[in-house]
Amino acid sequence: MDAMASSAAEYAALVAGGSKTFSQALMEMTDAQVAAVRARDLDRRVEKANFPFVKTLADFDFSFQPSIDRPVVEELAALGFLERRENVVLVGSPGVGKTHIAVALGVEAVRARKLTYFVDCQRLVGDLKRAADKGALERRMRFYAHLSLLIVDEVGYLEVDKEGADLLFQLVSRRYERRSTIVTTNVGIGAWAKVFGDPVVASAIADRLCHHCTVLKITGRSYRTKDLAPDRDAGSGA
Question: 166-177 pLDDT, tens per residue?
């Protein structure tokens, strides 16, 4: 009742002064309390989603990355792909906005009360390996397999050994056509054989992820260099 309690004196004065009726004051106080409860609930669910930061599509500068098909991204934000159990793969060099878009879609999923979790590829592999070593792999697999939306960041940033690749294949297979996965990668899907060290496993992972999938290829400069002025003196000898 925090919101109602904090505004009680103010509304009591408004009612006493005739600015509002008692029923109007009660309705507005109740609405404020409901909004506060929903906001706290959203904050808790966002925290559980493990996002590295919280950003939305409203924060994204589409004009800086014209290679991105904005209508496609906005359609994804409507979350129809979750209902269809489809996946999203974001491909591009570091800094072009892949993770921002992935997080923004994840935030929309959380707002829609979809169970969502963000993890980078190396941490995911490490988590599954540790679970396997402790005899708890099945329980951990169930956690990841049950999520409505799993976001796996930075596939390809570092290579994955055979054990890790096999574990990822098991997880992707469990989620195939049952749950949605978003993957960001800085290498083309065709180069995943090198990432996973085994062309057969890499092909099997890619096949299941991309069977029902929207692939967004982002080209352009890194956002991290956005505010850097071009070096007009380059080559001038100055």
Answer: 999 999 999 999
Burial 215-237 (b: 16+ CB within 10 A, else e): ebebeeeebeeeeeeeeeeeeee
**Cβ(210)–Cβ(175) under 8 Å?**
no
Surface-to-core class of residue 152, CB atoms within 10 Å of its CB (0-12 exposed, 13-18 middle, 19+ buried)? buried
Q: Could you count the other beta carbons within 10 Å of the beta carbon of residue 18?
A: 7
pTM, rounded to two decimals = 0.82
* Domain range for 146: 57-223
Do the beta carbons of residue 181 and residue 87 sit within 8 Å? Answer: yes
Which amino acid type is present at position 189?
I
- Residue corresponding to tokens 């106080």: 29
Say if CB 151 and CB 109 are below 8 A apart: no
Residue 35 sits in the same domain as residue 112:
no
Residues 88 and 42 in one domain: no
Total domains present in the chain = 2
